[in-house]
Amino acid sequence: MKEIMKLIRFDFITSVNSALPFCGGMLIICLILTAFGIFNPIFGGLLTVLCAVFFSPAQAAANNPNFRRVRGILPVSRASFVRAEFAETIVSVIASELITLIFMGISKISKLYEIFPLKFEVFCKELHDLDGIEVAEGSVFKFVHLVIFVCALLIVQVTFINMRAAIEKHEHDIRNVLLVFSFVIIAIIASVELVMKRIIPPYDEWLFPSTTAGTWIWGIALNAAAVALGILFCRIAEKKTADYEI
What we know:
This protein is mainly alpha-helical. 76% of the residues lie in helices and 4% in strands. The protein contains 10 helices and 2 strands, in the order ααααααββαααα. Strands 1-2 form a two-stranded antiparallel sheet. α1 runs antiparallel to α2. The radius of gyration is 20 Å and the shape is globular.
């Protein structure tokens, strides 16, 4: 555990100068939107990007031979490098999910948008009152469900990509990213089409809970399942790369 924390700290120091301006700017924008009561997951995508890409500079630098030599002199095992990379991914996405949900809650309470001129206030009120997106007649994605579902899906996607990248020594990273995200996008579009044609029931009848308590239980269970899959992918990568050089 100490080795993993050392590596996460090392990657944080490596990434902070590159990521801080971008991440700090996005966080300020989201804070302003939250304060005025007009924050929702349409803007919350910024936060997901913010947290998910924070360690990207360090992870991208890992492909640089000079950087690998620097990492190679650190007193940590090969397994710890793999575990740290997966831990960074999982923690980053969960952090983005929690921050987004907290901002959504605060935004629902705030009505500071009422200080704006009437026409702009009406527009802001529509954003404030927006709770979901209708993907088909009678089928609505509530934003709170959307945030939890997308973040859990992102954990599975990115950890799977990390596993493939580690096993293949980052030789096919772009291909793996395109294949995984293309598959997910096609699956989502296909499921929406099936709902619209009434071949399968609306999502809120079988996928999303209708009560607050149900949402909490569903969200925790979904995240736990996603993290469990992420840990499984980590174990596979750790085993397959045990004989690789750092």
